[in-house]
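Q: Hi! First time doing this. I have a protein sequence and I read that you can turn it into a structure. Is that right? Here it is:
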Amino acid sequence: MMAKKNKVFYSSFNKTITIPSLIFIIGVSLFCGLFPVKALKVLGYLKDSISTNFNWLYVTIVTVFIFFLLFLAVSKYGKIRLGRAGSKPEYSFFSWISMLFAAGMGIGLMFFGVAEPLGHFVEPSLQGLDHSELLKRVQTYTFFHWGIHAWAIYGTVGLSLAYFAYRYKLPLSLRSCFYPIFKDKIQGKVGDVIDIFALCTTFFGLTTSLGLGVIQLSAGLEAMGIIPHISFGTQIMLVVIIMSLAVLSASSGLNKGVKYLSQINVIASVVLMLFILFTGPTVYLLRSFIEGLGHYTSHFFEYTFNTYAYEPERLPWHYNWTILYWAWWISWSPYVGLFIARISKGRTIREFIMAVLFIPSLFIFVWMTIFGNSAIWIDEHVASGALSGMASQADVLLFRFLEYFPLKTLVSALTLFIIFVFFVTSADSAIFVMNNIASKNAKKSPIWQNVFWGALLSVLALILLNLDGLETMQTMTLITALPFGVIMLLFCHSTYKGMYIDKKYYSRDFSPSTEYWSGAFWKKRLDKILSNSKKQDVHKYLEDTVKPAFEALKEELESRGVHTLIHTKTLPEHAIEIVIEYETMMDFVYGVRAEPKSISDYLIEEKNAPQFHTKRVFIPVTYFGDDRPGYDIQYFTKEEVISDVMKQYERYLSLTSEKEHDLFINSENID
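A: Yes, that's right. Below is the predicted 3D structure, encoded as structure tokens:
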């Protein structure tokens, strides 16, 4: 009996992450739900302060993400694979794109596809523009908010997570992104704090988004006459049905659940989009898409860096749209980034970045053009301003828009289906990601944990809907975005540092000191490999091997009329050098000195490795008169030292014989 009981109540939750997170999540949710007016007042003040005083920081953060990803994509780091060298992607390209698209933008496109363009169209601060310029701005602003900038935010988190999880074999959690900075401390309290913050931020963002989804579904059912009016009972029914399906999908795993639902919905979305295109003002939409793409491209940098410092009258619009969008995408990035990382194993960094930045963005541009421009065209030519008059009613606006098309009942039903499935896939992905964080990326988790997260999301979303606390919770999510955006900047630093070490490790050639190895003296050299040299050992090597080599070479050079000097130095480190002086050219210098080298803790603690008693050893390293980097020669014999000096001397003479190197060899240019 006891064995069965333990199995039933088995949990993979990490208590140090889950318990503090739940206390904070439930506490804030109850505060927002029970005291919505007071909470909105306090949080609204904080939101306004952040928007006013730190809008420049949001702009800077998102800009850094774009240039960081583009730099990695075109650099040598772009060839690094997210996994072992030769590993293959886990999902087909279409499945991969479908899943990341459904997780990142699904519900939002349905909610704002018509509402945002119409919102910009009636924006008071834009009404002074020429009509054609207004239409261009409306389309470009929508592209700007939903395109490359949004996906750069998701891509930054997703790439960092995927890189450290599949390349460094660390857990797929946000704490792993700080490994190059904190090392093994990420497994302790530092890592727990990072994961707690990520879990709370993710939960708040998802709760508000799922609440908005319920509102739009309810509005759609009412618009189609399926329900007489929107009631809290209807919303409870929708949440129960959707979360039940989401839990079942999450429990079946990504390969069965999200994968197939995402593919179905992308196909359904394309069908709906093509229907609107071919039954609407087709030629106008095609022309406006091409022109809009060009307008977006030509104004990309202007909009990217614009903080409206010289246009104060535009600041309210900037705060209420651009800054809120940047904050919203950042608040969603732990969730979307974790999900994208989970499905991106085996891709190269270049493939990951180019696909994540541009493919969803291009689809969104097409979508927003077809729905947004169609809505404005209908509003001006057919509806006589009826749609723009409803610009503030985003939940019902899409369905009112569809009433101007043929087969409106069938199309509205298809739209409801798409919203419903996007809702399920978002909730499905959310359950997976939150369980992943709370369990510290446990390989196996009991099904009841999926049920738990689905139930918690459902209950809190319904409480907030019933008590009008959703707006307060939305404000809470936006406030938490700024500190997390700063944390994401550290992701960039840490990821670059990791890739630099990665590339250096895999591209590193054999040590120059092994260049002359042929098999002779192998036992002696093996003894040297397994020993740890102290400073006095290097001094002995300089006196017993390097100095005799220099003296033998000096004798031969002198016999051939080349005046040669040998200098011995003791400060700052013991060193010996052979010098050939010139009057008009830079002197030839080949020196060897003792240099310290740090040993990693892993090698010191490894029992089957050479035994190191200190964290620092010394090696003989060369240096030259032209300040080029030197190299380790600890395994060189006397003859090999002579040979190496001769190679460097031949290089020196070869360079001095070429006229274009005058700048470097002229002694007057040497300090």
